[in-house]
Amino acid sequence: MSQLKNDLLLRALKGEELERPPVWMMRQAGRYLPDYIKIRNKYDFFTRVETPELATEITLQPIDQVGVDAAIIFSDILVIPQAMGLQVLLEEGKGPLLPKTVHTQADVDALITTDVEERLHYVMKALALTKQELNGRVPLIGFAGAPWTILCYMVEGKGSKSFDKAKQFCFTNPALAHRLLQKITDVTIQYLKAQIKAGADTVQVFDSWSGMLSPADFKIFAQPYLLQISDAVSEHAPVILFPKGSWYAMSDLSKSSASGLGLDWTVTPQQARKWTNSSITLQGNFDPSKLLGPIPEIKKSVKEMIDAFGTKNYIANLGHGILPNVPVDHAKAFVDAVKEYNKV
Amino acid sequence: MSQLKNDLLLRALKGEELERPPVWMMRQAGRYLPDYIKIRNKYDFFTRVETPELATEITLQPIDQVGVDAAIIFSDILVIPQAMGLQVLLEEGKGPLLPKTVHTQADVDALITTDVEERLHYVMKALALTKQELNGRVPLIGFAGAPWTILCYMVEGKGSKSFDKAKQFCFTNPALAHRLLQKITDVTIQYLKAQIKAGADTVQVFDSWSGMLSPADFKIFAQPYLLQISDAVSEHAPVILFPKGSWYAMSDLSKSSASGLGLDWTVTPQQARKWTNSSITLQGNFDPSKLLGPIPEIKKSVKEMIDAFGTKNYIANLGHGILPNVPVDHAKAFVDAVKEYNKV
Prior knowledge:
Two copies of one chain form a homodimer.
Chain A: H1 8-14, H2 34-42, H3 45-50, H4 52-65, E1 71-72, H5 79-83, E2 89-90, E3 96-97, H6 105-110, H7 116-119, H8 121-134, E4 140-145, H9 147-156, H10 164-172, H11 174-198, E5 202-207, H12 215-221, H13 223-233, E6 239-243, H14 250-254, E7 260-262, H15 269-275, E8 281-286, H16 295-309, E9 314-318, H17 328-339
Parallel strand pairs in A: 1-4, 4-5, 5-6, 6-7, 7-8, 8-9
Antiparallel strand pairs in A: 2-3
């Protein structure tokens, strides 16, 4: 394994004092990049995800073209329901669809929890190939969905404004919900460990729908499983937790074994530092819509954001995935502004 | 005007000590009620909104059938874009659609700001008729959308996951955005005053999409206009502000001229009381999805919620609109649990 030439991300996760924070963007390997669109026009979603050469090419695009300080493997959180035996359909431009959803004890019992590494071998191959192609330029991030978010899709079968069917499942049959969450957790731990073995330098756990839960329900249906994953995986590599919308959980999660905590843009840096007692590396939290504004405004706002977070224990990122309609030079302006910090 | 037999809501907004809090539910006159569905099957959305007899009948249904302590007039926040000259289409089961959206100075200048009372005469007629039919049983709530939320629809033309076009408009042309927000504010103030004159005992301002804004942008594009409305209208009747998702604004808004502040379910009662220094009446914040759970659980959670908020300066409500798939007896269990508080 080649030595990393740019290890800013890993040093930020260790809490080292840095000249400037590392920067990457959620969904950086995605639809705002014309070269990604070219690949998308030729291959359907799961072909892109399941063909290591394509996943690698897509993963590398923003490193070469936008200059981010980390690569995140091109994949999808819904490979876990697939590995557990559920069909996942993804039509371009529409959300995901799981034709068979999970409702009964028999449905939960039927879910497969073994051989994750073999079932998702194409992800590990893509990680290994990307690692090789990166040749130490920047660290490689692996990822998975959090158990609550995966449960949402397994029960609901698709995206939702309120995920009320998923919540109804949890509220009416909490024992079965916990059984399902535990199965997803077990698989996710195996999966993240395999990703690290294959070359991921750090892993992020996306709890995209945790903000739908009240603070009390988050503590019941989301937090325990995030902590289990963090505890099991952080021995192998640093873990970043991103429970989107769950600002109320930041204090608790800052005391966990995780090295990083992702934030959306509804939290001020000052408030986030206060809640987390400056004890964990924070990642975020630029409003993705701000990248649609003028470049001078982007640069000014990035500087203000770093001024407020500081350069220690901080990873510059968006507060959610980059939007498909962001011009590439605006994305680049965001990255450049972070890189120029402290140079002016 | 007949004396109110049940004035719990108004006393709660005044901060009086009460035996139990008043209770109503956002979207209580809506799709979970079979009698509403019957009317919906006969008349399209704007016929229901624009025919005072139908709006009144729909408004009264939850008073008679679910037993809430307040009526809220059946209408829609998008009557304001209509009154300002924009066409609004609403197809059943789909979201709203504004075929002509607002982008340029000319678009903003073309918006009508006069004669709101005449343009929305059917709302005032529905309020007057409902007031008469209520015959003092419970107070009547009027409402409007907040300027930021109305801007979202005017610019975007429809619902959105991120309202990034609306934000882009604000970030790239803030002067024009403020001009638009001010026009909407002026119209909304006239509209709410007219509603009070027509019979509304209190009014609520729904900022349904304020939670999409960062704390800094909320202070620029949402808060000043909420405060203007509150200041202008609260001389005439108590104002309730509901900036959904904007937990970060609670402290500031608690110092405003508003009498009440709506909360979604991501805030604990303890945290909300702390942020607002117990200086304003809080309204909320039951997770609407919880009404899909078992009745004993609903009743238990309602009791816990009131225990935490207390009976002073508190209005029991959901944290967002009631879901269409809630069984009526579950909605009734929610209301009954509030009414039974302190009786057991």
